Amino acid sequence: MKRFIPALLILIAFAVSCDNGPVGIFASIGSESPIEYKGTEVFKKSTPAAVVSRNGTLYAVITTLWKKNGNTWEKATNLPSQAMYATSAAVTGTTLYVAFLDSNAHSLGVFSTTDDSNWTPVDITFPANDEQVQQLLAVNNKVFAVTTKAVDGKTQYNLYHLSGSFGSPIRTGTNLFSLAYVDPTYYVASGTTIWTSTDLANFSVSRTLADDFFTSITSIGGKPTAVTAFGKVFWYDAGSWIDTNALTKSSKKLYLHAPVEYNNTLFVATNTVVRKTSSVTEVSPIAGYIELAFPLSTTKTQRDDNSLVTATNTVFSATIGGTALSMLTLITENGKPTLYAGSVGNGLWSNRNENGSWLGWQRETD
Q1: What is the mean pLDDT of the chain?
Q2: What is d(CA 281, CA 274) in angstroms, rounded to the nearest whole number?
Q3: What Rg do the C-alpha atoms of the chain give, in angstroms?
Q4: Rounded Cα–Cα distance for residues 77 and 135 (Å)
Q5: Is residue 125 part of a domain?
Q6: Contact 235, 224 (CB under 8 A)
Q7: For residue range 269-279, what is the model confidence (pLDDT) as tens digits?
Q8: Where in the sequence is the domain holding 114, given as residue range(s)?
Q9: How many domains, in total, are found in the chain?
Q10: What beta strand segments (E) does 229-321 contain?
């Protein structure tokens, strides 16, 4: 049996803005009266790991698997035998994939369902005894899993592709993996390297960094777009990687993570974390957000240096309690884009856009 040891959370405190005004969507309920919370304290003080959508139904990984019913969340029932905890979830088509643990936090593996009642183990040999599932990812209607294992006293990250079974790792890395797909190429990032592949079997190094590392990669506007721990945004265009100047505040480089695109603007989270490379140790100066209008350019910098402070210290505090975020995702529900944000120790929040305006952050409840 395998005991789950979660990877260190990268804590990201940020806000997202739009055309509502310079202080962004986190200000849109800042002046309203506090919302009465009717859920349990456990849900309120949780740290959500993921929110996904399958056939119009929302699921959340918050220690265990939750399912949204109307305006409230309920713990999912009819789970696989012995399943109590969940660590990650992903969706492709009509299928939900979840990594489960038993009551002793031993790994049960990855299961799939198309009806929320009948669960099938996708690979009874996965993960290996010395590995733990940290992430499930869905890219180009394919499922990937990221595991960790100890190798010579260090943590090795392994990326698997589900094709009948998970089989052997398709890549190993030094950090959590992220993936993007721009037909016909997969872009795979971990640590200092981005690899490319068209068949998930043969990989070529596309970009490497010195004294920096990639934190996220995604496809935005048909271009692979990556952000780094030392303040740069990279995108691939016309056969080469292009990058911005390092984004800074008070002459210190920002830590960037979790890019989200909406309404022709790129929002990128920042956080105050210690970053280490072979020759650099530095504390990122601020937790907040930057706002980059398309098209991106090599000289792009944040729109307003002071807005980072405003968003973090006043607007963000007034709406999501001033804590770092564990996750952010954009899901379209009934034609309306909705942001779901998981805060560290402060529960799950949502903000819906209607007719081009954000309605304001609301705390989700069980």
Answers
A1: 81
A2: 7
A3: 20
A4: 22
A5: yes
A6: yes
A7: 677 778 888 88
A8: 78-173
A9: 1
A10: 233-237, 240-243, 248-249, 252-253, 256-262, 265-270, 274-276, 281-283, 289-293
